[in-house]
Design a protein that fits this description.
Blueprint (H helix, E strand, L loop, with lengths): L1 E9 L4 H16 L4 E9 L11 E2 H9 L3 H18 L10 E2 L3 H12 L3 H14 L7 H10 L4 H8 L5 H13 L7 E4 L3 E4 L4 H19 L1
Parallel strand pairs: 1-2
Antiparallel strand pairs: 1-5, 3-4, 5-6
């Protein structure tokens, strides 16, 4: 049984990060008799200068990418369809905001030590994109933490300290120095990289190809 090390550089604010991950999950499920994977999430802030109160998402995207209202509508439609194919629901009905995600990355760093990092990351994605929770509000954020079985008061203590601040910055710097400028980026066995919200077929093809290449190297 082949076991892969997969490092995912991503931001909770990135819709293609959840689409890509869900498609990777589907690929690994289809390949479960041949291979498995140890997954670690790493921080990337799409909007490091975003103020704590956040910004209306549609307004933010139109400003950042110079989108017209029609282009924004088309983007949302494409994203909804991609999410549906991947088994994830994007909710575009209510008011959505873009926030500064630094504290989320700090909590994800802690969750990694607790063995619940993927669970918390997926819960954050769902809270933000499906349930339209404002994760820049402490209680809303801590409710998500508690939902995956992590200790709420420990998390509160982290938020009110500088714990994991340097760790998050260090990891972000390391990946920038490696040339990673967009998310999601999936790094497989420290050598191969796939970027974007790839379909599950692309992951299956890549994992099989890497497995064959590494088998030849080991022969």
């Amino acid at each position: 049984m082949k076991n892969f090390k997969i490092d995912i550089v991503s931001d909770v604010m990135c819709p293609w990060c959840v689409v890509g991950y869900k498609n990777l999950e589907t690929a690994l499920e289809q390949l479960k008799d041949e291979m498995s994977a140890d997954i670690t999430w790493h921080p990337f802030e799409l909007n490091p200068d975003m103020p704590i109160e956040g910004q209306d998402l549609n307004e933010h995207l139109m400003q950042k990418y110079n989108l017209t209202e029609e282009q924004g509508d088309e983007n949302r439609k494409n994203m909804f369809e991609a999410g549906k194919r991947a088994g994830f629901t994007f909710n575009f009905d209510g008011k959505r905001i873009m926030i500064n995600s630094f504290d989320l990355h700090r909590l994800l760093m802690w969750a990694r030590e607790e063995g619940k990092q993927t669970e918390l990351k997926l819960a954050f994605f769902e809270a933000h994109f499906t349930d339209l929770k404002y994760l820049n509000q402490e209680e809303a954020l801590l409710d998500v933490v508690e939902k995956v079985g992590l200790d709420k008061e420990t998390a509160r203590g982290i938020l009110h300290s500088d714990k994991y601040v340097q760790d998050v910055r260090q990891e972000q710097d390391n990946f920038k120095q490696m040339g990673i400028t967009s998310v999601p980026t999936f790094i497989i066995n420290d050598k191969y990289a796939l970027t974007g919200g790839q379909p599950s077929e692309s992951f299956i093809q890549a994992l099989k190809q890497i497995s064959e290449e590494e088998a030849k190297q080991d022969a």
